[in-house]
Amino acid sequence: MGKCVCIIAEFRHGAFRRVSYEVASEGKRLADALGIGLCAVAVGSGVAEKAAELGRYAVDKVYAVDDPALENYLAEAYVPAIADVIAGCDPAAVILPASVDGKDLGARLAARLKAGLAQDCTRVVCESGKIKAKRPIFAGKCFGWCEWAEGALPVISCRPNVMDCFAPMEDRKAEVEKVAFSVPETRSRVKSMDLDTSGKVELTEAEIIVSGGRGMKGPENYPMLEELAKLLGAAVGASRAAVDSGWRPHADQVGQTGKVVNPNLYIAVGISGAIQHLAGMGSSKFIVAINKDAEAPIFSKADFGVVEDLFSFVPVFTEEIRKLKSTCS
Amino acid sequence: MNVAVLLKQTPDTESVIRIASDGKSVATDDLKWIVNPYDEFAVEAALRLKEKHGGSVTIISCGPQRVVESIRTALAMGADTGVLIDDPALEGSDSLGVATALAAAVKEVNPDIVLCGSRAVDYDLAQRGPMVAELLGWPHLALAVTIDSDGNTVTIDRPIEGGKVVLESSLPAVVTFGGSHAVWSPRYASLPGIMKAKKKPLAVKKLADLGVDAAEAGTARVRMTSLEMPVQRAAGRVIDGGQDTAGKAVELVRALHEEAKVI
Prior knowledge:
The complex is a heterodimer.
Chain A: E1 4-9, E2 11-12, E3 15-16, H1 18-34, E4 37-44, H2 47-50, E5 61-66, H3 75-89, E6 91-97, H4 100-113, E7 116-121, E8 123-127, E9 130-137, E10 142-148, E11 154-158, E12 175-178, E13 188-195, E14 208-212, H5 222-232, E15 235-238, H6 240-244, E16 265-269, H7 275-281, E17 286-291, E18 304-307, H8 310-328
Parallel strand pairs in A: 1-4, 1-6, 4-5, 5-12, 6-11, 7-11, 14-15, 14-16, 16-17, 17-18
Antiparallel strand pairs in A: 2-3, 8-9, 9-10
Chain B: E1 3-6, E2 9-11, E3 33-35, H1 37-53, E4 57-62, H2 67-77, E5 81-85, H3 95-109, E6 113-117, H4 128-136, E7 140-144, E8 146-149, E9 153-160, E10 163-170, E11 173-177, H5 181-184, H6 191-197, E12 202-205, H7 214-217, E13 222-228, E14 237-238, H8 245-259
Parallel strand pairs in B: 1-4, 1-6, 4-5, 5-12, 6-11, 7-11
Antiparallel strand pairs in B: 2-3, 8-9, 9-10
């Protein structure tokens, strides 16, 4: 039995990403169930100064690996740093974000520590001292429960936007220990990083998604969805049909090949609902389908369905949203 | 440039998934098997590297005999040789056990670069590529949507939340692939390609042939002990709102705001 639950907090450009707080919250629930403390490892440039903040999310102690050379995530440098801390703090479980970098890090870390990794988990429980984690397979067409062999270290990455994040305890601070680490020479390097500062919402972290499919008929019609999305503070997604036709960038593709999303609200516009698309958005909390074909399979997943031609419906719907937003603000 | 591609066979993405009678595996009796789409992107990228630099492309897979068909598909696309690791010990294993077997096969092939999908569309484990890199002690560049190499280094574009990173590494290295069919447009096998593929070498190996201890590689640290289907959604409501378009729009906004409370 390990001494603590250890989370890996994700730090980018001077701040912890929100998913780090979700992971801390989930880590705290597990630590309480096991009757042990919660510690964190945080790697980055300037992370030591900010590390005490994790105390607001119940972390007792943060091991901070701070070096200007660790500004950007690079597995070759991050993995040895984190593996050393984990070996030193002897955790009962390691929990990290199933973000783009986190999934990558988790796999390499598990191989180094000879640990058992469950990626992209949506639930973690503890039954009579035994840890179990639930994760989607086949992009959410099914779920599997993972269990660990005696003596194997569970490494659990948690899907963003799923775990309940508790309200921060404003005046609580974590103890911070700066860990000495000499950053190794790496053969790989970040040549450049290009972050979109337009305020566009990332699909996998969006609370609302407006998604368009083959029914949109062409790229020239997407500004209609972008306008609606902007009013709602939503991200714009697309079906494989729309991406394969070259109407939308591949990064917008929702589905079994593409991104699996779980927003509070998913608005499917002109999407028939191929099984591989349904797999990618089926776990959305609330689904609206707008399609002129009343027989489209998307309606079987929708909480609210509108059988209408999207070209006449969406502009009217957008105006109604605009009215609502103006009365609310 | 000699390229190795790690390839997994998965059920078609249009498959309906059912839980088998053991409660912890997926029923496979009526599934159609395909090359994992992300691995297919890796095969396409490998063939482009071969076209530019010469050399050979080797396909390495783990699994039962049915996987031969998927390896032949890659050979028909233009890969040169195949290796299938078919060992019953791997059935009880986990990702790290499979990665151990794959890494041993990679060492035998001794390529300049290893390519594979960032994940497979069946179990979405997303572990194989980085684990093989860790076991080999190589760098890895994950989630590539472009790839370029001058023969000594490899460069990729990697999308991250809200942006893009350009990564570079010296060789040898592992690269895992993201993107989509639209990004990679993997080539179809031509008829002559299919004929030629039948005669290309395809070796079937056991773990012992690769010097891997079957007891060790076959031990799972983590395993799936039960499966469950997602909760069925309650039947939805068709928004009517007095039939006309404007009426439906008003009713939908009201329902989303007042009932669902999501806007």
